Amino acid sequence: MRRYSEADKADVRRRMCPPHRQSVAWISEELGIHLATLYNWRKAWRLQGGVVLSSEKEPEGWSTTGKFKVVLESSGLNATELSAYCRERGLFPEQVSR
């Protein structure tokens, strides 16, 4: 069984999150990491409270933990800061308010 470095995992996580939003299948093919390994990592990151989106771009497809984290992170932001926050994550302010 191959061991992956934290740098490898960080690269995969970056690819899964906005603005990249690469699919698990694409990452698996490109990096040669087994699909099951990638799905296990993604599940663990979600359980840790990290916003690792599913293939769906709409917040309705996110986990409850992911939605909650976005609400917490954006709750004290003014309109300009919220816009910047959303741009970094590939979101629209309307999605956050929903």
Sum up the structure in keywords.
mainly alpha, 6 helices, 98 residues
Secondary structure: elements and pairs:
Elements: H1 6-16, H2 24-31, H3 35-47, H4 64-74, H5 79-89, H6 93-97
Helix pairs in contact: 1-3
Description:
With 98 residues, the chain is mostly helical. Helix content is 60%, strand content 0%. The protein has six helices and no strands. The model has no long low-confidence stretch (mean pLDDT 83).
Multimerization status? single chain
What is the mean predicted local confidence, pLDDT?
83
User: Strand share of the residues?
Assistant: under 5%
Helicity range of the residues?
Answer: 55-70%
Rg (CA only): 14 Å
What count of helical segments does DSSP give? 6
Helices and strands: which structural class? mainly alpha
Note the overall shape: elongated
| Ends apart, CA distance between termini | 43 Å
Number of strands: 0
The main sheet comes to: none
Along the chain, the helix and strand elements come as HHHHHH
Low-confidence stretches: none
